[in-house]
Fold this protein.
Amino acid sequence: MAAIVNHRIAGTRISVWDVLHHLDNNWTLDEIAEVFGISPQEVQAAAKYIAEHEDEVRDVHRRLEERNARGNSAEVESKLDQARARRLAWLRERHQADSREASRVGNRA
């Protein structure tokens, strides 16, 4: 049977919390397996782990949801804004370069 290592299905990046979310929404093991591209046995291993450690899994899940609801810190948002600005500047530069190239090619015809 598949193993759970550090709250993840061994050999994957799929956590027991990923599986919990789908189980809580009444997905079948086969449906969960299909969406994650894993075997139903791996989903079963996660479901078994969840059942055996339900209090811990749900407590961590609750804390994760609370943290997500709080959103990013001002520092992280600032870094994201800077990264977005750099990406947009790069895209503008690429579009301008592409337009200049298209113009040169069009003038040759």
Notes: The mean pLDDT is 93. Helices lie at 16-24, 29-36, 40-52, 54-70, 74-108. The radius of gyration is 23 Å.
